[in-house]
Amino acid sequence: HFDIAIVGAGHAGAQAAIQLRQLGFSGSIGLIGDEPELPYERPPLSKEYLAGEKAFERMLIRPETFWAEREVALIAATRIDSLDPVARRLRSSAGDVFSYGELIWAAGGTPRRLGCAGGDLDGVHVVRRRSEVDAIRTGLDGVERVAIVGGGYVGLETAAVLRKAGKQVVLIEALERLLARVAGPDISAFYAAEHRAQGVEVRLGSAVERVEGAGGRVTGLALQSGGTIAADMVIVGIGIDAAVAPLLGAGAAGANGVDVDSFCRTSLPHVYAIGDCAAHENLFAGGLRIRLESVQNAHDQAATAARAIIGRPEPYAAIPWFWSNQYDLKLQTVGLSLGYDATIVRGDPATRSFSLVYLLEGRVIALDCVNATRDYVQGRKLVLDRAMVDPARLADTAVPLKEMDG
Ligand code: FAD
């Protein structure tokens, strides 16, 4: 039995345990996760870890001693399959049963695979867990041509690392531009040009028909357009499905993720959900119910749930931020561009340092800053204030954003 059981020992789950102790919670905490490792940071998986530039030990969220000292019971390599919300019991795939007082569900998401023929051939990979990235790294020896499916952040970061490692890289995106779900066309065009300049073959508007193989191993991709791409390895970065089946199976409201209120409470009593799997109404998305896949959201929702559980509730209202590293480009975003109706380019993309400012009804709702940390830092207040700023001033890099208070 745990006073608080946390399912999922990733960013959100680990942070929830850390927060609970920091807030003075002294009851028992069990952190149950299906990966074998201590809780670790995921962002380096498609960056420095894939590149072999960062040791795994440096990605641990906390050293092993931390968890022992804080009396957080780590239950690794244990997958929770079902939940009985009345008896307040969890059951693992191995048949272990855990009872809880309060449950925090922080199971993240499962990477989508290609549903087409050949999608499970040897040499077809996803990038979500350490074990998957280790498999890529091991498999890279002797690989010359890599096809990456998906032009989101994970696909692009992976492309940058493999290109730098000297591989021939083809990146296939089904939509007509990169990062279509998360960024404006100026950012998409900039990154497409950048990857092409680095030697990545970027194919937009290309959908995979099937994965081709020989002897059980991938040899390439057949495209719906009829063409084919030869590849010794395929890496699929086409998003995740929220890992919430046990919750929905127990009757929790939700569909794409599990629905939570502003205190991260699900519709089931004593059950909270946080991180990538939690569909919440986000103030910075105009109150729309969304899932946010970011370290920021995982951390801040962990704090929200911890506070609610110990009786010091504060509704979730954190400003979203995110980053992505590709080559020598550091992208930093603040706010959510969802629903924008105009954009302003601030600075010249040709200098490889600029920002894209997103407006809705004349108000600043988000910024994507490429090698422009000053804009990122100073733009935060404009987003918080939903500032209404003269577009000509926003575009003028001679005027610092901190001097524009709307
Ligand atoms: P996770 O960190 O995925 O943790 C969930 C854990 O629960 C996993 O260990 C999972 O295996 C486990 N689990 C799932 N189901 C069960 C079950 N039934 N029983 C037990 N355990 C279970 N965000 C940024 O802000 N910046 C970045 O640069 C960035 N880069 C990224 C690069 C990559 C390659 C990836 C994959 C993600 C990146 N992200 C980045 C996103 C960020 O890592 C996630 O938003 C964050 O990890 C979400 O935390 P979480 O705890 O909700 O989920």
Automatic annotation (TrEMBL):
Keywords: FAD, Flavoprotein, Oxidoreductase. One of its GO terms (cellular component) is cytoplasm. Residues 321-404 form the Reductase C-terminal domain. The keyword Flavoprotein applies. GO terms for molecular function: oxidoreductase activity, acting on NAD(P)H. Its cofactor is FAD. Residues 2-302 form the FAD/NAD(P)-binding domain. InterPro entries: FAD-oxidoreductase/Apoptosis, FAD/NAD-bd_sf, FAD/NAD-binding_dom, FAD/NAD-linked_Rdtase_dimer_sf, Reductase_C. Gene3D superfamilies: 3.30.390.30, FAD/NAD(P)-binding domain. It holds the Pfam family Pyr_redox_2. It comes from the Bacteria. This is NAD(P)/FAD-dependent oxidoreductase. The lineage of its organism: Bacteria, Pseudomonadati, Pseudomonadota, Alphaproteobacteria, Sphingomonadales.
